[in-house]
Amino acid sequence: MQVAVFSGAGISAESGVPTFRDDEVGLWAQYDPYEVSSIDGWNRHPELVWAWYLWRWQLSRRVEPNLGHRAIADWEQHAKVHVITQNVDNLHERGGSSTVHHLHGSMFEFRCADCDHPSNPVMPELTEPVLEVAPPVCDCGGLIRPGVVWFGEDLPDGPWNAAVEAIDAADVLIVVGTSGVVYPAASLPERALDQGKTVIQVNPEPTPLSDRVTVHLRTTASAALPGMVQRLPFLLG
Ligand code: BJW
Ligand code: ZN
């Protein structure tokens, strides 16, 4: 059996990383997600955007994968599993998954915003989040930015093509912890449904996809995912 997983911020929420559209994102609660995660926002106020990523970078390094991440890794004993994630943390990999396609990049990679040269900046350890931090500067004078995909930027071809292939080859797609409102990523479950595939959604809340999926499990990732793939042959008949 071949399984594709399409994950979003909800799967990391139980590790302690706030979801993207969470009301409780501290200092940044006052900002629209677009302001801190768009190329326009970066061009307008890089210090604000850099501080937001510095805080999330520190947080993501401190937290551990949860039962949801570990369950998906365990499925590899029973099936070929491709994880397609919108998350920029590395909790799927740290949870043990071997094939992870990052559609929105990684917050652990950095490059110059002007010359694209990869960078490995020294990250200051903040004891508490601050609203503005000056980004490091490249030798060319450009600002160093995180290797993530912001609104208004293209997704990287490699992970995107791998994700489409994984969807097309999958017998079943598990959609977990995503609001499914950000495109083109959100078109992947639609693609699987258009192909008549079984799509299982795991999300405590309904999303625009919920009416179309085969099954919507209205619960958390850590409650639904352990043992799910082992039970799938019985569930799917
Ligand atoms: C749980 C849980 C638990 C909680 N268990 N579940 C077509 C139509 C309309 C617009 C567009 C379109 N095509 C493109 C666009 C524009 C735009 C877009 O989609 N806009 C819409 C929002 C309107 N897309 C883009 O700009 C994309 N690029 C692009 O299209 O390129 C072409 C182009 C070029 C030039 C100009 C214009 C276009 C790029 C999108 C990049 C998105 N980047 C971000 C930031 C990445 C870095 C970072 O993370 O910091 O990606 S935005 C943000 O949203 C982040 C996430 O990956 C992404 C998705 O969020 P996600 O993961 O779904 O999180 P939440 O918080 O929304 O949802 C969490 C869910 O979990 C909730 O449902 C909870 O209920 C649930 N949950 N606890 C299970 N325990
Ligand atoms: Zn540079």
From TrEMBL:
Coiled coil: none annotated. SUPFAM superfamilies: DHS-like NAD/FAD-binding domain. Its EC number is 2.3.1.286. GO terms for molecular function: NAD-dependent protein lysine deacetylase activity. It comes from [Mycobacterium] crassicus. Substrate binds at Y53, R56. It comes from the Bacteria. This is NAD-dependent protein deacylase. Residues 1-235 form the Deacetylase sirtuin-type domain. NAD(+) binds at Q86, N87, V88, D89, G177, T178, S179, N203, P204, E205, A221. CDD domains: SIRT5_Af1_CobB. The active site is at H104 (proton acceptor). Keywords: Acyltransferase, Cytoplasm, Metal-binding, NAD, Transferase, Zinc. Gene3D superfamilies: SIR2/SIRT2 'Small Domain, TPP-binding domain. Its main location: cytoplasm. NAD-dependent lysine deacetylase and desuccinylase that specifically removes acetyl and succinyl groups on target proteins. Modulates the activities of several proteins which are inactive in their acylated form. It is an enzyme of class 2 (transferase). The lineage of its organism: Bacteria, Bacillati, Actinomycetota, Actinomycetes, Mycobacteriales. It catalyses: N(6)-acetyl-L-lysyl-[protein] + NAD(+) + H2O = 2''-O-acetyl-ADP-D-ribose + nicotinamide + L-lysyl-[protein]; N(6)-succinyl-L-lysyl-[protein] + NAD(+) + H2O = 2''-O-succinyl-ADP-D-ribose + nicotinamide + L-lysyl-[protein].
